Amino acid sequence: MSVSWNVGISSLGLTEYVDSNDVLTRWALLQLTVEGGYDPFPVPAPGSVQVIWGSNGVDGTEPDPMLYAFSGGTRLLPDGGRYYADGFYTVRITGEFPGGLQVLRLVDLFVTVSSDTGVERTGTGRIDGMVGGSGGDTLMGAGGDDYIDGAERSDLLVGSNGNDTLFGGLDGGLDTLLGGAGNDLLDAYDGHDHLSGGTGNDSAHGGAGNDGLLGQDGDDLLEGGSGDDRLVGGLGNDMLYGDHVSPFLGVTYGNDTILGNEGNDALYGGEGFDKLDGGAGDDYLWADEDDDTLIGGDGNDTMHGREGHDRLTGGAGSDAFNGESGNDTFYSDLDGRQDLFYLNDPGAGADHIARFEAGIDKIDMWFAKGVGATFVTSASAVAGGGVWVIYDRASGMLSVDMNGTGAGESYDMALLYGRPTLTAADIMGL
C-alpha cells in the first residue's frame, strides 16, 4: 500500500527572493505522525518536489540542475531489520537560479512511502533554515524559529515572526539583518552592517566594520565590535557595548556612538573616542579609554569616564560622576536633586565641576576620609601636619595638602565653575 502527503504553500509559509546566478540551499521540515499506535515502515526514498520560479510564479522553467534529497528522522527497529519514520524529515534543495532577481517558492512537497497497514498519517511543513550563496541574497523567514545564513556578498536577511538566528557571513559584505518579532540573535560578523532586532529581547553583534545596531522594543543586548559603530537601544532595559571583542584577536577599537533611549540601560564604550547617551531612565555609562562624552539624560544615572579627559553631563535626576584619571569636566543640572562627584586620586588630574549646588550636591574625596582632614578656605590657614582640604573662594579651586607642609604633597583636585560657597558639609567624610 502507498500513502502520500501533499504539503502546500500555506503550511510552508515562506517566500524567498534569490539573486541572479546564485546558489540557494534551503530546508523544508516534514513531520510524519503515526495515528493509532506504533506502525513501522521503510525509510522513504527521495520523493518529488515541485518548484515554481519567476516573478509571478508561473513563467520560466525549473532551474537546472536541481538536487532533491531526504535525510534524518529515522532509527532502527529493535530487531535491526527495518527502519521506521520517527518525527521530522529534512528536504534539502540546491540549484542554480538564472535570470535576475526572482521569486522562489516551495509550493508542493509530495512524499510517497510504503506501509504494511493502511493507518492514517498527516504531514506538516515549514521552512527551518536557509543558506545563501555567492551572490547578494534576500532571504526572508516567516512564522517559526528560522536559521538564515547570508553566506557571501551583501545580503538582506529578514527573520519576521519567531525566535530567529540571522548570520551575515564571513566575507565582509554589507549586510542588513532584520529580526522582526520574537527573541532574535543577529550576528553580522565582518563588513559595514545594519542590524535591527525588532520587537522582543534581541541580541545583536556587529563584529568588524562600522556597524549600525538598533534594538527597538524589548530588553536587548547590542555589541558593536571593532570599528566606528552606532548603537541605539530603543525601548526596554538594554545593555550596549561599543567594543566587546577578545583582546587576543588583535582588532582595532573604534569611535562609537551609543544611545540608550528609554529604559534603564547599561552602556559600555570600550576603547576609542566614544559618545554615550543614556536617554531617559536610570542608566549606567562606562567609557573606558580615550576622551569620551557621556550624557546621562533624565533619571538617576551613574557615569564613569575612566581614562582620558572626559566630558560627563548628568541632566535631571540624582547623578553620580566619576571621571577617574584625566582632567574631566562634569555638568550637573540645577534641579535641586543631589548629585555626587567622585574626584581623582591626588596627582591624577584636576577635574572641572559646572553648576554645583552648595548645600545639596556632594563631593567625594576618598583619601580625606577617616584621617582627620581639616577644611579651610585659604592656603595660608594651613598649619602643622595632617591632611588639609583647601577651597579658594576667589578662584573656585579645590585642592589638598596631604602633609600640611605643601612640600611635594599639594595637589589641585577640582575647579568649581561659578565659585559656589563651598563648606566642609559639602565634602563627604569631613
From TrEMBL:
GO MF entry, a single one: calcium ion binding
Region entry Disordered, spans: 197-226
Cleaved signal peptide residues: none
Top-rank taxon, per record: Bacteria
Pfam families per record: HemolysinCabind (PF00353)
Record keywords, A-Z: Secreted
Protein name stated in the entry: Calcium-binding protein
Species this protein is from: Falsiroseomonas bella
Organism lineage string: Bacteria, Pseudomonadati, Pseudomonadota, Alphaproteobacteria, Acetobacterales
